[in-house]
Backbone:
């Protein structure tokens, strides 16, 4: 019985959620993809830089 009560309560709470529109979802998806690409480029640049410096001065 507790599981059924939990599921009913969960369903009731989900009705109170303010769901984003399709336009907002698409916009936020694009923002996340752009930030991910910029982060990858940033980390890739420093990886390349440190690898080059280590190869130059250590090896």
Residues:
């Amino acid at each position: 019985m507790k599981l059924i009560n939990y599921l009913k309560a969960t369903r009731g709470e989900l009705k109170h959620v303010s769901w984003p529109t399709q336009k907002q979802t698409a916009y936020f998806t694009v923002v996340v993809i752009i930030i991910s690409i910029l982060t990858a480029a940033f980390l890739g640049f420093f990886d390349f830089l440190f690898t080059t410096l280590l190869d130059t001065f250590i090896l």
About this structure: Residues 21-59 form one domain.
